[in-house]
Design brief:
Helix content is about 30%, strand content about 35%. By secondary structure, the protein is an alpha+beta fold. The protein has a single domain, classed as Aminopeptidase, CATH 3.40.630.
Protein backbone atom coordinates (compact mmCIF):
# COMPACT_ATOMS: atom_id res chain seq x y z
CA UNK A 1 0.00 0.00 0.00
CA UNK A 2 1.19 3.47 -0.89
CA UNK A 3 0.00 6.88 0.20
CA UNK A 4 0.08 9.54 -2.51
CA UNK A 5 -0.94 13.14 -2.93
CA UNK A 6 -2.85 13.40 -6.20
CA UNK A 7 -3.94 16.24 -8.45
CA UNK A 8 -7.32 16.86 -10.03
CA UNK A 9 -7.45 15.09 -13.38
CA UNK A 10 -5.09 12.24 -12.48
CA UNK A 11 -6.38 8.66 -12.70
CA UNK A 12 -5.98 8.02 -8.94
CA UNK A 13 -7.80 11.28 -8.17
CA UNK A 14 -10.72 10.15 -10.36
CA UNK A 15 -10.83 6.80 -8.57
CA UNK A 16 -10.88 8.66 -5.26
CA UNK A 17 -13.82 10.80 -6.39
CA UNK A 18 -15.71 7.63 -7.31
CA UNK A 19 -15.07 6.21 -3.82
CA UNK A 20 -16.29 9.45 -2.24
CA UNK A 21 -19.41 9.40 -4.45
CA UNK A 22 -20.14 5.72 -3.75
CA UNK A 23 -19.57 5.72 0.02
CA UNK A 24 -20.29 9.28 1.18
CA UNK A 25 -23.01 10.45 -1.19
CA UNK A 26 -24.75 7.25 -2.33
CA UNK A 27 -28.43 7.95 -2.89
CA UNK A 28 -27.94 11.71 -2.71
CA UNK A 29 -29.45 13.77 -5.49
CA UNK A 30 -26.78 15.55 -7.56
CA UNK A 31 -23.69 14.30 -5.66
CA UNK A 32 -21.43 16.32 -7.98
CA UNK A 33 -22.65 19.43 -6.17
CA UNK A 34 -20.90 18.16 -3.02
CA UNK A 35 -17.95 16.48 -4.71
CA UNK A 36 -17.15 19.68 -6.59
CA UNK A 37 -17.82 22.05 -3.73
CA UNK A 38 -15.90 25.35 -3.38
CA UNK A 39 -13.11 23.57 -1.45
CA UNK A 40 -12.36 20.90 -4.05
CA UNK A 41 -9.92 22.88 -6.21
CA UNK A 42 -8.04 24.40 -3.28
CA UNK A 43 -7.68 21.15 -1.32
CA UNK A 44 -4.82 18.70 -1.02
CA UNK A 45 -6.08 15.26 -2.08
CA UNK A 46 -4.56 12.09 -0.65
CA UNK A 47 -5.18 8.47 -1.60
CA UNK A 48 -3.92 5.13 -0.38
CA UNK A 49 -3.55 2.78 -3.31
CA UNK A 50 -2.45 -0.76 -3.94
CA UNK A 51 -1.63 -2.02 -7.43
CA UNK A 52 -3.07 1.20 -8.98
CA UNK A 53 -6.40 0.76 -7.18
CA UNK A 54 -7.52 3.36 -4.62
CA UNK A 55 -8.52 1.91 -1.25
CA UNK A 56 -9.12 5.14 0.67
CA UNK A 57 -9.14 8.89 0.20
CA UNK A 58 -9.13 12.15 2.15
CA UNK A 59 -8.71 15.84 1.50
CA UNK A 60 -7.30 18.78 3.42
CA UNK A 61 -8.18 22.43 3.05
CA UNK A 62 -6.74 25.33 5.01
CA UNK A 63 -9.06 27.98 6.46
CA UNK A 64 -8.32 31.72 6.51
CA UNK A 65 -6.39 31.30 9.78
CA UNK A 66 -4.17 28.54 8.39
CA UNK A 67 -5.90 25.76 10.32
CA UNK A 68 -6.60 22.45 8.60
CA UNK A 69 -10.00 21.12 7.69
CA UNK A 70 -10.18 17.41 6.87
CA UNK A 71 -13.17 16.42 4.78
CA UNK A 72 -14.60 13.71 2.56
CA UNK A 73 -12.36 11.04 4.06
CA UNK A 74 -13.45 7.46 3.41
CA UNK A 75 -12.01 3.96 3.09
CA UNK A 76 -13.70 1.26 1.05
CA UNK A 77 -15.58 -0.99 3.51
CA UNK A 78 -13.67 -4.14 2.57
CA UNK A 79 -10.37 -2.42 3.46
CA UNK A 80 -11.38 -0.86 6.79
CA UNK A 81 -9.54 -1.80 9.99
CA UNK A 82 -6.23 -2.09 8.07
CA UNK A 83 -4.76 1.29 9.13
CA UNK A 84 -5.64 2.97 5.83
CA UNK A 85 -7.69 5.69 7.52
CA UNK A 86 -4.86 6.18 10.01
CA UNK A 87 -2.33 6.54 7.16
CA UNK A 88 -4.46 9.18 5.45
CA UNK A 89 -5.24 11.16 8.59
CA UNK A 90 -1.67 11.00 9.90
CA UNK A 91 -0.41 12.44 6.60
CA UNK A 92 -2.98 15.24 6.60
CA UNK A 93 -2.11 16.12 10.22
CA UNK A 94 1.61 16.19 9.36
CA UNK A 95 0.89 18.61 6.51
CA UNK A 96 -0.84 20.88 9.03
CA UNK A 97 2.11 20.65 11.43
CA UNK A 98 4.55 21.56 8.65
CA UNK A 99 2.37 24.52 7.66
CA UNK A 100 2.25 25.76 11.27
CA UNK A 101 -1.47 25.19 11.79
CA UNK A 102 -2.69 25.44 15.38
CA UNK A 103 -5.72 23.18 14.90
CA UNK A 104 -7.25 20.58 12.61
CA UNK A 105 -11.02 20.44 12.27
CA UNK A 106 -13.35 17.82 10.83
CA UNK A 107 -16.94 16.65 10.91
CA UNK A 108 -17.22 12.98 11.77
CA UNK A 109 -20.06 10.60 11.24
CA UNK A 110 -21.25 9.51 14.66
CA UNK A 111 -20.07 5.96 13.92
CA UNK A 112 -16.45 7.13 13.37
CA UNK A 113 -15.99 9.35 16.44
CA UNK A 114 -14.00 6.68 18.31
CA UNK A 115 -11.50 6.40 15.45
CA UNK A 116 -10.79 10.14 15.55
CA UNK A 117 -10.68 10.24 19.36
CA UNK A 118 -7.91 7.60 19.30
CA UNK A 119 -5.88 10.08 17.24
CA UNK A 120 -6.42 12.92 19.71
CA UNK A 121 -9.47 14.67 18.27
CA UNK A 122 -12.09 16.01 20.68
CA UNK A 123 -15.80 16.51 20.07
CA UNK A 124 -16.89 20.15 20.01
CA UNK A 125 -20.54 21.11 19.97
CA UNK A 126 -23.70 19.10 19.58
CA UNK A 127 -24.60 16.39 17.11
CA UNK A 128 -26.13 17.59 13.85
CA UNK A 129 -27.58 16.09 10.71
CA UNK A 130 -25.42 16.71 7.66
CA UNK A 131 -27.23 19.10 5.32
CA UNK A 132 -26.02 16.99 2.36
CA UNK A 133 -26.80 13.46 3.57
CA UNK A 134 -28.96 13.75 6.69
CA UNK A 135 -26.48 11.45 8.49
CA UNK A 136 -25.68 12.45 12.08
CA UNK A 137 -22.25 14.08 12.47
CA UNK A 138 -20.29 15.83 15.19
CA UNK A 139 -17.63 18.52 14.84
CA UNK A 140 -14.19 17.59 16.14
CA UNK A 141 -10.90 19.38 16.66
CA UNK A 142 -7.28 18.42 17.23
CA UNK A 143 -5.02 21.01 18.85
CA UNK A 144 -1.47 20.83 17.50
Amino acid sequence: MNLKEVNIGEKLYSQGVKIRRDYLFDGIEKPEKYLNDPWEKRSIHVVVESEASVLGVGRLTYDEDGNGIVSQMVVKPEFRKRNIGFMILEHLIKLCVFKGSEKVYLSSRESAVGFYEKLGFNVIGAKFASPQTGIVHVSMVLSL
